[in-house]
């Protein structure tokens, strides 16, 4: 690195020469940079080094100064790699060298810095744990998301009881759902960077316990204000699994082997809310709405105990602990990790978590449209929690328990999607292989192009098989009930593909891109319950559902347009790869 000149071109040449490898250009604007000498992928069969590393501490590492590194995913015989050869540019259209490498003096000092890596077959590497144990962790991660999402909708099982006791309108009671969803949107913006700094394990337990505690004032509330504030705090502290589960799954499975694991995680935020009204309906019908929260608290307590068994899986946290231990044992101050070497200031972390997501929403059409599309589907799911009682309780005269059972159709659709999403992942890997091992992000859109048709189909079936178009009698309930099957299927398949496309399109800004998606999703999810009942009562079941059907139908061209023109759009983006 001593040969680095005073301009970035010379620096790039020196970087490539020291790495003793040629830069391979796969497409205009795309450069594959080498791994550091002496390091290699954990398992070439299961790891694709060109795909985004979700375990990288995006929000707390100064990538402008230090760039990216494969430190957290590669293995080496010595247990470390030299920093001057490990750092590389952030993947984006602007292939800019990290500031520390562009400065000859700083780059020279990096030759002495040793970035800690995993050893070959390292027993502390979560990817080397036994498959049975990894599947247990995956199950607990998915179950934790189900448990929290379940809590958002369980109160929908007995809105009438809350309205009657507190003498408030349905819109006010709907706030108990909306405020918890808003908490889900805010919580990850706080918990995600904290988990990068301190590891994931503490935040599996502490926020979950606080969430459980705030279920108590929900159950004992003497007025509607207490209930609403407590529900918001439940959402805020209960958002831990949303911030941690996806990353934990990425920690223990390499990126080419996590297909079904990610499918479970993708289905959990949608399957959980569907279970809520099924359980809540029978509880409210038999023992009253307050017991809804006691039962939810018991369920959450069991899940919290299981979450407490999850060990630390976050590679930067494990390797940082190892680096501190090695420094103490050897006395070598140059042993460190990139996150420790280039840690962001508090101000920079706040900008990364609270400002950049909104900047990207305003400037990145791919992120904005894909997030809005996925968020609309999320909002429609919560619309079902208010429209199903209108159709089945008011139209068919069913009690809350039987109305809740109608949501089983959505669960069937979600279950069918679990058989499809792993196949979509295998199809993506096949396309990557056909393209020389480097698929385009647009290859992720196949699932969206399949799933997008099922959303309007489900909405039109629901609207035009409900009263008064099809009056109650005999087995006529099957029509509106069955609408949940195509909706549940399309919902999960579409979200799975949209999420993967956002990650692959913005590999250098994954944390900000996903935070932007969460903000939009929570906003639409929180807004929908506030007007959906009035919409169905004023427009009628057929036309109210059709409005959403037409909106979702109008959005169908989005994945097709990005499949065709996405590469050109990414070429004009500052942050897309």
How would you characterize the overall build of this protein?
It is globular and about 80 Å long. The protein starts with 7 loop residues before the first helix and ends in a 6-residue tail after the last helix. The longest helix is centred in the middle third of the chain and has 31 residues, at 365-395. With 577 residues, the chain is mainly alpha-helical. The protein has a three-stranded mixed β-sheet, with no helix packed on it. It folds into three domains: 36-122 and 313-343, no CATH class; 130-311, Up-down Bundle (Growth Hormone, Chain: A), CATH 1.20.1250.20; 357-576, Growth Hormone, Chain: A (Up-down Bundle). A hairpin with a 2-residue loop joins strand 1 (24-27) and strand 2. The model is unreliable at 1-34 (pLDDT under 50). The relative contact order is 0.12. The chain has 27 helices and eight strands. 67% of the residues lie in helices and 4% in strands. It has helices at residues 8-18, 63-66, 83-86, 99-102, 104-109, 131-154, 159-166, 170-198, 201-213, 215-220, 224-238, 240-252, 259-286, 290-307, 315-330, 338-341, 346-363, 365-395, 400-405, 408-434, 446-451, 454-464, 478-482, 484-505, 510-539, 541-554, 557-571; strands at 24-27, 30-32, 39-41, 74-76, 80-82, 114-116, 118-119, 335-336.
């Amino acid at each position: 690195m001593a040969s680095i000149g005073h301009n970035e071109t010379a620096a790039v040449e020196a970087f490539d020469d020291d790495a003793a490898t040629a830069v391979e250009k796969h497409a205009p604007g795309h450069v594959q940079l080498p791994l550091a000498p002496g390091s290699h992928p954990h398992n070439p069969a299961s790891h694709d080094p060109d795909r985004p590393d979700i375990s990288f501490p995006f929000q707390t590492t100064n990538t402008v100064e230090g760039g990216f590194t494969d430190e957290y995913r590669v293995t080496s015989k010595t247990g470390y790699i030299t920093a001057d050869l490990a750092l590389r540019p952030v993947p984006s259209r602007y292939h800019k060298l990290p500031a520390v490498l562009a400065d000859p003096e700083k780059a020279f000092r990096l030759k002495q810095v040793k970035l800690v890596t995993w050893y070959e077959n390292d027993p502390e590497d979560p990817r080397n744990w036994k498959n049975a144990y990894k599947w247990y962790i995956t199950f607990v991660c998915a179950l934790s998301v189900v448990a929290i999402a379940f809590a958002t909708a369980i109160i929908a099982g007995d809105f009438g009881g809350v309205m009657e006791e507190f003498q408030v309108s349905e819109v006010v009671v709907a706030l108990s759902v909306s405020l918890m969803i808003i908490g889900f949107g805010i919580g990850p913006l706080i918990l995600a960077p904290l988990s990068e700094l301190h590891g994931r394990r503490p935040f599996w337990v502490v926020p979950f316990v606080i969430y459980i505690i705030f279920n108590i004032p929900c159950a004992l509330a003497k007025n509607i204000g207490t209930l609403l504030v407590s529900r918001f705090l439940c959402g805020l502290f209960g958002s831990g699994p949303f911030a941690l589960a996806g990353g934990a799954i990425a920690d223990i499975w390499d990126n080419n082997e996590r297909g079904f694991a990610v499918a479970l995680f993708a289905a959990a935020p949608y399957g959980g809310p569907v279970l809520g009204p099924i359980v809540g309906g029978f509880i409210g019908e038999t023992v009253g709405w307050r017991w809804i929260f006691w039962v939810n608290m018991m369920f959450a307590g069991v899940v919290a105990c299981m979450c407490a068994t999850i060990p630390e899986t976050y590679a930067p946290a494990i390797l940082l602990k190892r680096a501190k231990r090695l420094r103490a044992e050897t006395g070598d101050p140059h042993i460190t990790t990139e996150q420790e070497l280039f840690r962001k200031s508090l101000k920079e972390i706040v900008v990364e978590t609270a400002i950049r997501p909104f900047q990207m929403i305003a400037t990145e059409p791919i992120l904005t449209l894909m997030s809005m599309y996925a968020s609309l589907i999320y909002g429609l799911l919560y619309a079902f929690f208010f429209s199903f009682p209108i159709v089945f309780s008011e139209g068919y005269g069913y009690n809350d328990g039987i109305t809740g059972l109608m949501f089983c159709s959505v669960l069937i659709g979600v279950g069918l999607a679990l058989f499809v999403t792993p196949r979509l992942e295998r199809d993506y890997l096949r396309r990557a292989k056909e393209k020389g091992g480097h698929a385009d992000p647009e290859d992720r859109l196949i699932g969206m192009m399949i799933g997008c048709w099922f959303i309007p189909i489900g909405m039109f079936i629901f609207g035009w098989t409900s009263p008064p178009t099809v009056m109650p009698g005999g087995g006529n309930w099957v029509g509106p009930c069955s609408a949940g099957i195509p909706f549940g299927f399309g919902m999960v398949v579409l979200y799975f593909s949209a999420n993967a496309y956002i990650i692959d399109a913005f590999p250098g800004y994954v944390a900000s891109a996903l935070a932007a998606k969460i903000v939009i999703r929570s906003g639409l999810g929180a807004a929908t319950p506030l007007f959906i009942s009035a919409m169905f009562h004023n427009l009628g079941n057929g036309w109210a559902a059709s409005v959403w059907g037409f909106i979702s139908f109008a959005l169908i061209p989005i994945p097709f347009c990005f499949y065709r023109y996405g590469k050109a759009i990414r070429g004009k983006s500052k942050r897309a790869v």
